[in-house]
C-alpha cells in the first residue's frame, strides 16, 4: 500500500483523478504482454508533462518508492510488471506530436504517442518513419524506445535506436536531462541517447524524443518463395545478401507457422512447404525491378518450389499482414502463447530452426518458428497451457536450451524483445561476468537507490550454463 503522505503529495501534483489505487486500476497494471507474470503495484499515476514527471520522481525518490514507466504494456519480457510494487507511471496523457520539422527532417514527440498513428501522420506529410514493430497499432513510441523495438523493416532500415537522435528524460532524483538534438553529428561526451534507448526504463523516464525521418521509398514490390527444403530457404537468405541486395523485408515462416497463418488469413498457401520466405524490396522502380529479378534467380537456384510476385498493393499488404498476424494466429491454438526471440548470424538460420525443432521434439512441446530471416532474428513460439505445470516446466526447459543454442551458433538471447524478467537469468551467458558488473555500475550511477523498474535486466541468480550437444 502506498504511504499516505506520498499519496497526498502525488495528488497535490496531479489531482485525485490521475492518482489511482482502486483494485481495478491495480490489477489492470499488474501484468503486460508476457504470459504468466503478474504483480500488483501500490498505485498508478498519469502525468501530463515533463515537469509533472520530475515532481513525481522527487516524491518517489524521497520516500524510496519504486516506479515502473509504462506505455501500452505490449512488451514480451515482463518489462513492465511491477515486481516490487510501487507506482506504475502510465505515459498515455503525454501523447502529442510536438513538432514535425520539415527543414531538418525530424519529429519531436511525447512518449505516449501511438506508433501507428505517428507513422501514418508522417506518411501523410510525404515522409517516412521506418521502425515497424508488429505491435505498432497498439504500442507507443516511448515503449519502442525503452525496448529498442525492431520490426519487419529492420534489415534494410535498422531499428528504433537508429532513428532516436535526441531525448528528454527524468532521472530517479527528479532531475531533467536532455541528450542529442536535431543533429546528424554529435560526439560531445558519452552517447547518452543511445545508452537510454533499450535501457528498459531502468535508467530514466523518457518524456520526449527527437526522431529522424527519411524520404519514403518511391516504389515497392513484394514476392513469396516457397521451399520443401529448409536449408534451401536459409541459403537463399544468405545468397541474396551476398548479391549486395538488402531487401526492405525478408521474413521466414516454418511449416507449423504456415499452417496456422493460412488457416487464420485464408491465403491458400500450400501446406507441404517446410519454409516460406516473404520478400519485399523498395526504392526507385528500376532498381527494385532489377533486385527482384536477381532475387528470383537466387530463389530458383536454391530450388524454390513455388515463386510468385504480388500483383497489386492489396495483395502485397495481405502477405505482410499475414506475417504480422503470426502471433495472433498461433494464440488461437492453446490458452497460453509464449513468443520468444533469439538472434543468430544469417548463415546459421537453418541450423537454428533445426535446433529449435529438435529441442521441441526432445521436450515434447509445440513450438512454431517465424521471424526476420534477413537479420537472423527468429521468434520460436510455444503454444501451451499455463494451468499444466508439468508442461510449462518442459516449455521453460526447451527455451533455456534454445537460448543456449543461439549463443553456441554465434548469436544472442534476444534481438528485439529485451531482457526484462524473462531473459535476466541468461544475460550473463551473453555478456559475461565483467559485462554484468559494468552494466550494474551504470545502473547505480543513474539510479543509486534502485527505484527505476527494479527487478529487471539483472537476475538474482544466473542460470548455470550447460552446453547441450546434438543427439
Descriptive account of the structure:
The mean pLDDT is 95. Strands 10, 11, 12, 13, 14, 15, 16 and 17 form an 8-stranded antiparallel β-sheet that branches. α1 packs antiparallel against α3 (50-63), α8 packs antiparallel against α10 (285-301) and α13 runs antiparallel to α14. This protein is α+β, with helices and mostly antiparallel strands and 471 residues long. It is globular. It is built from 15 helices and 17 strands.
Approximately what portion of the residues adopt beta-strand conformation?
A: 15-25%
Radius of gyration: 23 Å
Arithmetic mean of pLDDT: 95
The oligomeric state of the chains shown is: single chain
The major β-sheet equals:
8 strands, antiparallel
Structural class, by secondary structure, is alpha+beta
Helix content bin: 25-40%
| Number of helical stretches of at least 4 residues | 15
Q: Give the N-to-C terminal Cα separation.
A: 52 Å
Low-pLDDT segments: none
E-strand count: 17
Name the overall outline. globular
Amino acid at each position: 500500500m502506498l504511504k499516505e503522505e506520498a499519496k497526498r503529495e502525488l495528488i497535490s501534483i496531479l489531482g485525485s483523478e490521475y492518482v489511482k489505487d482502486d483494485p481495478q486500476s491495480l490489477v489492470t497494471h499488474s501484468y503486460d504482454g508476457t504470459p504468466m507474470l503478474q504483480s500488483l503495484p501500490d498505485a498508478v499515476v498519469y502525468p501530463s508533462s515533463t515537469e509533472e514527471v520530475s515532481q513525481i520522481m522527487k516524491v518517489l525518490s524521497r520516500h524510496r518508492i519504486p516506479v515502473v514507466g509504462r506505455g501500452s504494456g505490449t512488451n514480451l519480457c515482463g518489462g513492465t510488471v511491477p515486481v516490487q510494487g510501487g507506482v506504475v507511471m502510465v505515459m498515455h496523457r503525454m501523447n502529442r506530436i510536438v513538432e514535425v520539422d520539415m527543414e531538418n527532417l525530424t519529429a519531436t514527440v511525447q512518449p505516449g504517442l501511438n506508433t501507428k498513428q505517428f507513422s501514418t501522420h508522417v506518411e501523410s506529410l510525404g515522409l517516412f518513419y521506418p521502425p515497424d514493430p508488429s505491435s505498432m497499432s497498439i504500442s507507443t513510441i516511448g515503449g519502442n524506445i525503452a525496448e529498442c523495438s525492431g520490426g519487419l523493416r529492420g534489415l534494410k532500415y535498422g531499428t528504433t535506436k537508429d532513428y532516436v537522435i535526441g531525448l528528454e528524460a527524468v532521472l530517479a532524483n527528479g532531475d531533467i536531462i536532455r541528450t542529442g538534438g536535431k543533429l546528424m553529428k554529435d560526439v560531445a561526451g558519452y552517447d547518452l541517447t543511445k545508452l537510454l534507448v533499450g535501457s528498459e526504463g531502468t535508467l530514466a523516464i523518457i518524456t520526449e524524443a527527437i526522431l529522424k525521418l527519411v524520404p519514403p521509398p518511391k516504389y515497392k514490390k513484394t514476392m513469396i518463395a516457397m521451399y520443401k527444403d529448409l536449408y534451401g530457404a536459409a541459403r537463399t537468405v544468405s545468397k541474396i545478401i551476398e548479391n549486395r541486395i538488402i531487401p526492405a523485408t525478408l521474413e521466414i515462416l516454418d511449416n507449423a507457422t504456415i499452417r496456422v497463418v493460412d488457416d487464420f488469413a485464408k491465403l491458400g498457401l500450400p501446406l507441404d512447404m517446410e519454409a516460406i520466405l516473404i520478400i519485399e524490396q523498395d526504392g526507385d522502380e528500376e532498381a527494385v525491378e532489377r533486385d527482384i529479378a536477381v532475387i528470383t534467380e537466387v530463389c530458383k537456384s536454391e530450388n524454390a518450389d513455388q515463386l510468385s510476385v504480388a500483383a497489386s498493393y492489396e495483395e502485397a499488404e495481405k502477405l505482410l499482414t499475414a506475417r504480422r498476424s503470426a502471433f495472433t494466429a498461433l494464440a488461437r491454438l492453446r490458452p497460453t502463447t509464449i513468443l520468444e526471440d533469439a538472434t543468430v548470424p544469417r548463415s546459421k538460420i537453418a541450423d537454428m530452426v533445426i535446433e529449435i525443432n529438435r529441442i521441441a521434439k526432445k521436450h515434447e512441446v509445440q513450438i512454431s518458428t517465424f521471424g526476420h530471416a534477413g537479420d537472423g532474428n527468429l521468434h520460436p513460439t510455444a503454444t501451451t497451457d499455463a494451468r499444466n505445470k508439468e508442461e510449462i516446466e518442459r516449455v521453460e526447459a526447451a527455451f533455456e536450451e534454445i537460448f543456449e543454442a543461439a549463443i553456441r551458433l554465434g548469436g544472442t538471447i534476444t534481438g528485439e524483445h529485451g531482457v526484462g524478467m524473462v531473459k535476466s537469468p541468461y544475460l550473463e551467458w551473453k555478456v559475461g561476468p565483467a559485462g554484468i558488473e559494468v552494466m550494474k555500475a551504470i545502473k547505480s550511477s543513474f539510479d543509486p537507490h534502485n527505484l527505476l523498474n527494479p527487478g529487471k535486466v539483472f537476475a538474482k541468480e544466473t542460470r548455470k550454463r550447460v552446453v547441450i550437444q546434438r543427439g
